[in-house]
């Protein structure tokens, strides 16, 4: 199943994301970012923390662990990660998500 974001999204600045197989496009504001993510079946993303994050799965699914609690999120499911809370994820299939970050420098654009 292929559900790529349309060109209007892919024409946004591409995010410099340090995970191979993860692509993102940034909609920037003065106090936050919205990142449109396209994530291959990359397996595990290690535990980490950062600013508050809200997201929604557009297509695919992921196991997301937030503060030690793991849930499976599928198309249409949303999630919230409070500021500073440790979280990780596992991607077993290609997944598209839209994430809002309460930090306008969560990701920098690729140069």
Would you give an account of this structure?
The protein has 111 residues and is mainly beta. The protein has one domain: Jelly Rolls, CATH 2.60.120.10. 4% of the residues lie in helices and 50% in strands. It has one helix and nine strands. The strands form two sheets. It has a five-stranded antiparallel beta sheet with strand order 1-2-9-4-7, with no helix packed on it. It has a four-stranded antiparallel beta sheet with strand order 3-8-5-6, with no helix packed on it. A hairpin with a 2-residue loop joins strand 5 and strand 6. The radius of gyration is 13 Å and the shape is globular. The protein starts with 6 loop residues before the first helix and ends in a 10-residue tail after the last strand. The mean pLDDT is 95.
Order of helices and strands: HEEEEEEEEE
- CATH fold label: Jelly Rolls
Residues in helices, as a percent range: under 10%
Mean pLDDT over all positions: 95
Parts with pLDDT < 50 across at least 5 consecutive residues: none
Distance between the termini: 31 Å
Oligomer: single chain
Query: Which class in CATH terms?
Result: Mainly Beta
The overall strand count is 9
Count of DSSP H/I helices: 1
Major sheet, described briefly? 5 strands, antiparallel
Structural class: mainly beta
Instruction: Evaluate the radius of gyration.
Output: 13 Å
Identify the CATH homologous superfamily. Answer: Jelly Rolls
CATH architecture: Sandwich
Percentage of residues in DSSP E strands: over 45%
**Order of strands in the sheet with most strands:** 1-2-9-4-7
Shape: globular
Work out the count of structural domains: 1
